[in-house]
Amino acid sequence: MSPLIDAVFLLLIFFLVATMIKKEDKDIDIELPTSTSALKVKPDDRIMVIGIDQAEALYLQGEATTLTELMYQFRQLSETDPDRRIRLDTDKTTPFHKVVEVLNLLQFRGLTNIGIRTYDEHYNR
């Protein structure tokens, strides 16, 4: 009976540890623009992901948000971690003025470590 109890405890520990490792999905359902000269950057779990879809809706870390909330988050980030990496995901049909609007807010707060995600065969399979 004790080997069975040991096996059950080992399984319990395994599943507890495995659920802690799950990564948060920050992606939104958009069609990325293609690029022939994109740089490969190592993945970073601390990266802040801002998304804009084809309907000009804004997303922060995969959750729908507003421009006012983005401004608040940028202000907080500029005070606590101004060198944090920020990734901008936009649909290829997103109007450019919306992208510029978000980039202007980032620049206003002094956040300059920004990258724009493009389609990549390896990453997007």
The residue-averaged pLDDT reads 81
H-E order:
HEEEHEHE
Report the strand count.
5
> Distance N terminus to C terminus?
47 Å
pLDDT under 50 segments (min length 5)? none
Main structural class? alpha/beta
Name given to the CATH architecture: 2-Layer Sandwich
CATH topology: Nucleotidyltransferase, domain 5
The top-level CATH class is: Alpha Beta
Shape assignment? elongated
Protein name: Biopolymer transporter ExbD
Subcellular location: Cell membrane
Membrane topology: Single-pass membrane protein; Single-pass type II membrane protein
Organism: Thalassobacterium maritimum
Give a description of the structure.
There is one protein chain. With 125 residues, the chain is an alpha/beta fold. It has a single domain, classed as Nucleotidyltransferase, domain 5. It is built from 3 helices and 5 strands; from the N terminus they run αβββαβαβ. The protein is elongated. Pfam families: ExbD (PF02472). It is found in: Cell membrane. Keywords: Cell membrane, Membrane, Protein transport, Transmembrane, Transmembrane helix, Transport.
